[in-house]
Design a protein that fits this description.
The protein is mainly alpha-helical. The protein has eleven helices and no strands. The longest helix has 34 residues.
C-alpha cells in the first residue's frame, strides 16, 4: 500500500503553489530584466533592447561604492557584535536556571518582533536623549538590536541539543572553561553560529527602516537605492545595484539554510 507521503499532491494544490512562487519571485526577475534594458527613464515592458553598459556605469559611480562600503562595514561589525552577545545570551538561557530566565529570553527576541519603525523611533529618541550624534556607530547599534536575535535563536536551539554530560566529562578530565568551550561546545554549535552570522549579515546589509532613524546624513546601499527611486537619474543603475543586493543577501541565506539542515547531528545529543 502506498504511503500518504508518497501520494501525488492534488492538481489544485500544485497550481496554488506555483502561483504563490510566481507572485513572490516574478518581481525579483523583473529587477534583473530591467538591469539590462536600453531604456533609462521608464520601465517599459518588454524592454526595447538589452545592453551591458549599465554594469559599467554602476561600476564607475563613486556614490554606489561609498554606499556599498558603508553597508558592508556596518553589517560586518553588527554581525560580530551579535555573534558575541547572542552566543553569551544563548549559553546563559539554555545552560543555566535562574529566576526570570523566560522573561530574559522574551526581552532578547523582542526587538525583532516589534515593527521596525518602533525600534527606529526608540533608538532615535534614546540617542537624542543621550546627546549621541548620529554616526557610523549609531547605525551599527541599531542593526545589532535585531542581529543579536538572529544569532540567539540559532545558538539557543543548538545549545539545548548539546548534552550536559559532555561538558561535565570535559571538566572531570581537567579541562578549564576555555578549553571546554573550544574543544567541546564550539564544534557542536559552530554551524549554528555560522548560519546565524550569515543571516544577521544579510538582514543588516539590506535594512532600511531602522537605518533611516539612526543614520543621520549617511547613506547605506538600501537608503541610496530608495533615494534614487524617488529622484531617478539612471533607472537601470538602480536595478543593477538591486541585483547586487539580491545576490549578496541570497548567498548567505542559502548557505545558512544548508548549514542548519546538515547540522542536525550533535555529539552527545539525547544522552
Amino acid at each position: 500500500m502506498r504511503s500518504d507521503r508518497s501520494a501525488s499532491a492534488p492538481m489544485g494544490l500544485k497550481i496554488a503553489a506555483a502561483a504563490g512562487l510566481l507572485f513572490l519571485h516574478v518581481p525579483i526577475l523583473l529587477i534583473f530584466l530591467y538591469a539590462f534594458t536600453t531604456e533609462e527613464k521608464s520601465y517599459q515592458f518588454p524592454p526595447p533592447g538589452y545592453t551591458l553598459k549599465w554594469l559599467a556605469v554602476a561600476w564607475d559611480r563613486p556614490d554606489v561604492w561609498a554606499a556599498l562600503g558603508l553597508s558592508v562595514r556596518v553589517a560586518s561589525i553588527a554581525t560580530a557584535v551579535a555573534l558575541v552577545l547572542g552566543t553569551l545570551c544563548a549559553a546563559a538561557v539554555s545552560q543555566t536556571r535562574f529566576f526570570g530566565r523566560e522573561t530574559i529570553s522574551l526581552l532578547v527576541i523582542l526587538p525583532i518582533a516589534l515593527p521596525g519603525i518602533i525600534t527606529g523611533i526608540a533608538l532615535r529618541s534614546a540617542f537624542s536623549f543621550a546627546e549621541i550624534p548620529f554616526s557610523f556607530w549609531t547605525i551599527v547599534l541599531g542593526h545589532a538590536t535585531f542581529c543579536v536575535v538572529v544569532v540567539y535563536n540559532n545558538a539557543v536551539a543548538r545549545f539545548r541539543r548539546v548534552s550536559g554530560s559532555l561538558i561535565e566529562a570535559s571538566m572531570d578530565l581537567g579541562a578549564d572553561g576555555f578549553q571546554t568551550f573550544r574543544y567541546v561546545i564550539l564544534p557542536n554549535i559552530g554551524t549554528a553560529l555560522l548560519a546565524g552570522g550569515m543571516l544577521a549579515f544579510a538582514l543588516s546589509f539590506d535594512e532600511v527602516i531602522v537605518t533611516t532613524f539612526t543614520a543621520g546624513q549617511q547613506q547605506t546601499l538600501p537608503i541610496w537605492m530608495l533615494e534614487e527611486l524617488v529622484r531617478p537619474r539612471q533607472r537601470p543603475v538602480t536595478n543593477v545595484v538591486a541585483m547586487l543586493v539580491v545576490l549578496v543577501t541570497l548567498l548567505p541565506i542559502l548557505a545558512a539554510y544548508y548549514l542548519t539542515r546538515e547540522g542536525d547531528q550533535v555529539a552527545g545529543a539525547g544522552k
